[in-house]
């Protein structure tokens, strides 16, 4: 979402990070839905997201697996985060891109954020 919102404090960081990477990017439908909601479904935001998503691979874990992962975290984890965690585990060498450093550091999957990275 930070990439689509120029006013977001993490916008520049995300844009630089993505520009410097030469690997495929995977996004989940849950993350796209969350982005459209946060960005208010405005025409500019939707146009930006449409262009962005056209360049990404969309992959969704099975909903039953997502809900089971959420249950492990006792209300801390939302659906989009659970999808990202499951995909990070599924794809060897995958690194999650997150602006929510606090939650992803608890989930214990490799990720990068504006506050640093974790590769444990």
How would you characterize the overall build of this protein?
The protein is mainly alpha-helical. It has a single domain, classed as Rossmann fold, CATH 3.40.50. The protein is built from six helices and five strands. It has helices spanning 11-19, 29-38, 43-54, 63-72, 79-90, 101-107; strands at 26-27, 57-58, 96-97, 111-113, 116-118. The strands form two sheets. A three-stranded mixed sheet has the order 3-4-5. The chain has a two-stranded parallel ribbon with strand order 1-2. It is globular.
Task: Itemize the secondary structure elements and their pairings.
Layout: H1 11-19, E1 26-27, H2 29-38, H3 43-54, E2 57-58, H4 63-72, H5 79-90, E3 96-97, H6 101-107, E4 111-113, E5 116-118
Parallel strand pairs: 1-2, 3-4
Antiparallel strand pairs: 4-5
Helix pairs in contact: 2-5, 4-5
